[in-house]
Structure formats: structure tokens, C-alpha cells
Amino acid sequence: MKRKKGKTIESVFYGIIILITIGVFFIPQAKSSSEKESDLKNAESLLVIKVESLIKENKIEEANQVLAEIKSEENKVLIKSEIQLKELEGRLENIKKMIDEKNYQKAKEELS
After folding, report:
1. Would you say the pTM of this structure is higher than 0.85?
2. What are the tens digits of pLDDT across the range 72-84?
3. How far apart are CA 99 and CA 89, in angstroms?
């Protein structure tokens, strides 16, 4: 009788261990920070496209306003660098015009 009772308790413990092990696989795992950042980046893809089109249209102020809505650090860095590039292109075009007009002193001041 004792032996049968011991076997039953042992079987119950094994059953509980198996159920816990199976249950652990069905509990959703918390996302890592890189997965969260990736999800956020993908969710903001429409905003990024909108900002890029504003930059191409040379609407920098509007692009900066939309940039404030973006939460993904990677997207922010990308957009900020594109805005800076566009601003530099504008400055270089102005300098080129000054040089073409032989206004060297003004071009030199712009470069300083």
C-alpha cells in the first residue's frame, strides 16, 4: 500500500513538472529593446516617407514639425541627417551662384 501511494505521488509530481514545462512555452516572451525599436521603426514608415517627400520638396520647416512626431531614434537620426544634407545642398547652391556671379568675397564669408 505504501509503495502504491509513493508511486502515485511521484507520478503527480512528474505530471506537474511536465505541465509547468509545457506552460512555459506558451507564455509570451517579453520583446527585447531591439525588437521594440524595430517594431516602432516599421510602424513609423509612413511618417518617414512623408518627411522624405517634404524634404525633397524643400519644405524643411514642415519636415521638422513631422519629425517631432517620430519616436524611433533610428528614424530620427535618418531624417535629421537628410534635413542637414538638404540644408547644406542649399547653401552650396547659393555659394555656387555667388562664385558664378564673381562675388568671391560674399562666397568666402558664406563659407566661414
Report:
1. no
2. 888 899 999 999 9
3. 15
